Amino acid sequence: MNPLWQQLVEAGLVTGDPPPPEPAGPAWYVHALLGFAAWVAALFLTIVLVAFFRFEGGGLGIAGAFACAAGLLLLRSQSPFLTQLGLAASIAGQAGMLFGLGFRDFNRTAAVMAAILILPSLLTTNPIYRAWCTGASILLLASALEQWSPLTIALAAALVTLVFLIQPQIPRAYGYGAAIALVAIDLFTHFGRNPHPQAPYAGGLLAGLALVYTAHHFFDTKGAIYAALISLILIPAPGVAAALLIILIGFGCAAPTLTGLGIAAGLVYLSHFYYSLSFTLLTKSIVLLATGLALLALRWFLFRKEKA
User: Fold this and answer.
1) How far is C-alpha 29 from the geometric centre of its chain's CA atoms?
2) Do the domain assignments include residue 280?
3) 187 partner at 20 to 30 Å CA-CA among 15, 66, 68, 193?
4) How many angstroms separate the CA atoms of 304 and 308, rounded?
5) Other CB atoms within 10 Å distance of the CB of residue 211
6) Which pTM does this prediction carry?
7) CA 293 to chain centroid
8) Which alpha helices (H) appear in the chain, and where do they start and end?
9) Which of the 8 DSSP states describes residue 147?
């Protein structure tokens, strides 16, 4: 008998025989090779279609819609090759639809495409495709809003909080897509040429509100107070609050991928803040000192709560 199952039986947590072991599937490198082959096949298929049929304008959009529909059908297959081929074909079809909509104003095109991407994410159970559609939709909406892009930071942060904390029955793929979009929008706001100079700080403040709610969810009122204090201190370093939000949700919900994404994003944001010439060394030192003191106070609060 399985030693773990024996311990559970002795503890009175389970009864009867252990469940049969699940059949072992193909090795990971087989999946990787099949996936790579499928993406290469989809790439060459796209090149052939564009080169021979010379789709332009509306024709490109129609062909993209058909490719997206075919990809959705292939995603229902159990074969790793067909699944990856469907994923690649559907993403290529979405690109064709984006460039084939025919609007002269790209902002309007991005807004329409952001709405269209909601439908295919609901028609499949593939987690990678759901995450892709969610993240791409939020990024396209941010591109359409331009100087109002901080609103999409609030949208992405709210969606991550909704999926992982408020409505955990929603598939986590939507939350992963929103988290990736949140990090990407913050990066574009930092390193891109945003039309509004205050956009990074507005986005950091909105992400800070989600951080306060998350801290209240895990640590009650005192945790929310500390999170609000940290968010206010980090206003000169926008992006760090979003990274802390992702780290906290990932750690609290046992999602190591989300935690790793937040840690990587936090390192990028802190490095940018440290080497940025927008603030003096004195301002940076004060922000980092205040953040360290706030984190030490939070550590003291958590250890005191654990002992109680």
Assistant:
1) 25
2) yes
3) 68
4) 6
5) 29
6) 0.78
7) 30
8) 3-10, 28-53, 58-74, 80-100, 106-116, 118-122, 127-145, 150-161, 172-191, 199-233, 240-252, 256-275, 281-307
9) G
